[in-house]
Write a structure and sequence with these properties.
The chain is built from 13 helices and five strands. It is of the alpha+beta class.
Amino acid sequence: MPINLANLDDFPDSPYAAELRKPSSRLGFSKRLEAEYLDEHLRRVQPRARIWTALAALLAGGFTIAQWLEDNSWSGEVLAHVLLIVPISLVMAWLAWSPGRMRQYLRVASVLAPILGASVAIAVAQAVSRGAAEEMGGLMLLLIATFFFVGMLFRAALIASLAILIGFTTAAAINGVSLPLLLKCVLFLAIGTTLGIAICRDVERSYRKRFLEQSLINELVDRDGLTGLKNRRAFDEHLLRVWQQCLRDQKDIAFLLVDIDFFKAFNDRYGHQAGDVALRQIANVIKEFARRPLDIAARYGGEEFVIVLYDLAPAAVRSITEQLRLSIENLQIENLDSDCIKVVTVSIGAAIVRPAIGRTPKGAVQLADEALYQAKLAGRNRCIFEGQAEYETLVTGSYRNPDAAKRS
């Protein structure tokens, strides 16, 4: 599903839209997006990389045996096969076929592929100098594999292909290949390299654009259509991941439930369109308080929002929560039907807990919900905090004040 480029400005906070607005010729993203793209790239190329590296290892072994039988001695070509070509082929095959090692494979391949390519090119040049020009076919096969089967990104494939071209040209000249034959072979390789560069670059550009467009679509699916914040489904999924992270790292997690005070009265007086505008304004403030990778701000439902903060000290959570309340009050959105002050305000219930085995996020969210209820009972436009002590005595699903489960 293509994204209309004219609409990208409608997503000012999307890193994917920001990248799509940049020149399409770029083959690199910001650090975080590049890591995401690399994960997708590795999943896509793993099957072909496994097939090629296994085939390359078999071919390397077969050619080494054939060269040994032909020379019947430890000639330079045999040593090159034994010391470079075969070991490199085996290492790349081992990494490609080892579970969970594809990232290492890509890093190692970017270093070893140029060495392998140059080594094979030198061996082929020596064979051509002896009259075995047919071995150029094997070198062309390696060149094609370098661009399309090894699985490297374009820049790494470009370096490896140039190593093949330079290695062959240099070795052929040194080994006395006749000038007409040398020119034919180099022209043959140069044309193949040029075609490979053009096609490989275009393919990677297309894959990168598709990655950005699909990621933007996925991001839109996770967003609340009115406020632009994450929706409830995306929040629930993110919460489980962060909860597990906190459990592994033994870190605290903070839940902030934010409820707009007297919002029904606001809608009754000013209309639902004004209510939508107010929701968007408040959401724009809320999202500024969840900027770190493991933090999240979401629309929890109706006029209620939720923020999850990873690994912050209680004092920092209190400071952030109060800043958030004041920032929304300072929007100065008129609400003459408020019983607090005559602008839109929020009540915030915060729970700061440390996940433990046997406990689920539901209890922590319930604790924040009870804190929010206490904030509303105390007069609204305020923050109430609950901590680890309250969390340890809480029974999930059993509200200590039954009215908290049905507050308005």
